[in-house]
């Protein structure tokens, strides 16, 4: 075998290994500007469903979006916004995601899970995640569209997602609860203080009157 043939064989082996590795971590193959889906093995499908189940176990709801033409940088910006809101943003495979939803007992919005879909999961603060996603939509209206979501056992349309985004956050709810607890306590203290002051004033007046009579 000549050096030229050896180099050609090594080059072919390197690219074969590269595509095999990429197929394992990403079930899509990019050919030019088109994306061609590769068939998934049963094992890989089970892994993907298991991943969805894990996320859903820690989620109190999610927002569904349709997006086209976003750059990698724009998607990364969105992921950071959602992550800062204590959420998780990812693309989903519709049939496998539907299977995971059914297994976890979530409502299944099949009308939303069509085409190229991504999901923003609320891990503890869905209103804040909804707000982050809607704020991003304002910047990229032509490329990004919030279509609905799930909150608890309710299926949301786009209008209800907007309403959810305006709900108080967990921190705001905690502050309100503390206010409700502290306010009555302050009221009791004020009443006790006022009552004590009244008694002191009565005693003081009585002593002054007695001293004057003496």
Summarize the structure.
Helices cover 60% and strands 18% of the residues.
List the helices and strands and how they pair.
Layout (H helix, E strand, L loop, with lengths): L2 H23 L2 E4 L2 E4 L4 H16 L3 E7 L4 H13 L2 E6 L1 H11 L12 E6 L3 H14 L4 E8 L2 E4 H8 L4 H44 L1
Antiparallel strand pairs: 1-2, 3-5, 3-6, 4-5, 6-7
Helix pairs in contact: 2-4, 3-5, 5-6
- Return the structural class: alpha+beta
C-alpha-based Rg, rounded: 31 Å
Order of helices and strands: HEEHEHEHEHEEHH
Number of domains: 3
Largest sheet: 5 strands, antiparallel
Report low-confidence residues grouped into runs of 5 or more.
3-36
What is the 3D form?
elongated
**Could you say what the CATH architecture of the largest domain is?**
2-Layer Sandwich
CATH topology of the largest domain: Alpha-Beta Plaits
- Mean pLDDT, all residues: 77
How many β-strands, per DSSP? 7
Helix content: 55-70%
Describe it.
This protein is of the alpha+beta class and 214 residues long. The protein folds into three domains: 3-36; 41-167, Alpha-Beta Plaits, CATH 3.30.70.1730; 170-214. The chain has helices at 3-25, 42-57, 72-84, 94-104, 126-139, 158-165, 170-213, and strands at 28-31, 34-37, 61-67, 87-92, 117-122, 144-151, 154-157. The protein has a five-stranded antiparallel sheet. A two-stranded antiparallel ribbon has the order 1-2. β6 and β7 (154-157) form a beta hairpin. Residues 3-36 have low confidence and may be disordered.
């Amino acid at each position: 075998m000549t050096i030229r043939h050896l180099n050609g064989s090594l080059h072919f082996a390197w690219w074969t290994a590269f595509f095999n590795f990429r197929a394992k971590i990403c079930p899509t193959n990019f050919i030019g500007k088109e994306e061609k889906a590769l068939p998934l093995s049963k094992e890989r499908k089970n892994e993907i469903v298991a991943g969805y189940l894990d996320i859903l176990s820690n989620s109190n709801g999610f927002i569904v979006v349709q997006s086209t033409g976003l750059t990698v940088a724009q998607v990364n910006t969105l992921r950071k916004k959602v992550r800062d809101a204590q959420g998780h943003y990812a693309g989903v495979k519709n049939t496998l995601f539907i299977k995971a939803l059914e297994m976890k007992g979530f409502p299944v919005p099949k009308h939303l899970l069509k085409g190229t879909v991504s999901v923003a999961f609320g891990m503890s603060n869905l209103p804040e995640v909804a707000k982050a996603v809607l704020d991003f939509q304002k910047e990229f209206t032509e490329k990004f569209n919030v279509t609905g979501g799930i909150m608890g056992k309710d299926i949301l349309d786009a209008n209800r997602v907007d309403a959810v985004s305006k709900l108080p956050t967990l921190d705001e709810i905690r502050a309100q609860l503390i206010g409700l607890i502290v306010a009555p306590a302050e009221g009791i203290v004020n009443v006790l203080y006022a009552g004590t002051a009244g008694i002191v004033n009565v005693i003081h007046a009585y002593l002054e009157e007695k001293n004057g009579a003496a």
